[in-house]
Amino acid sequence: MLSNIQLELLKTFSRPLPESQLLEIKKLLADYFAQKVDDGIDELFNNNEWDVNEKVSEWTKSHDRTPYSPKK
């Protein structure tokens, strides 16, 4: 089943596009979603009143990986 955005894009772009326009649209979409991520990160830091430098430093020093334990 297609999502609402997929259906809308199919309707909007029902004709062939030159490769240059396709690349522009891909960049627009990538930029749009990158901005959404940036906005979400900003909101996360603001809501938690985190200092960017302190939090990033904390994250670089953490070891949150699941320990490897081979099955015997």
Give a concise summary.
With 72 residues, this protein is mainly alpha-helical.
Chain-averaged pLDDT: 92
Please estimate the helix content: 55-70%
Sequence stretches where pLDDT stays below 50 over 5 or more residues: none
- Global geometry: extended
Category by helix and strand content: mainly alpha
Main beta sheet, described? none
Order of helices and strands: HHH
Distance between the termini: 42 Å
Structure in words:
This is Dephospho-CoA kinase. This protein has a domain at 16-50. The termini are far apart. The protein is built from three helices and no strands. The protein is mostly helical and 72 residues long. The chain is extended. The protein has helices at residues 4-12, 19-48, 52-61.
Write the layout of secondary structure elements.
Blueprint: H1 4-12, H2 19-48, H3 52-61
Protein name: Dephospho-CoA kinase
Features:
72 residues, extended, mainly alpha
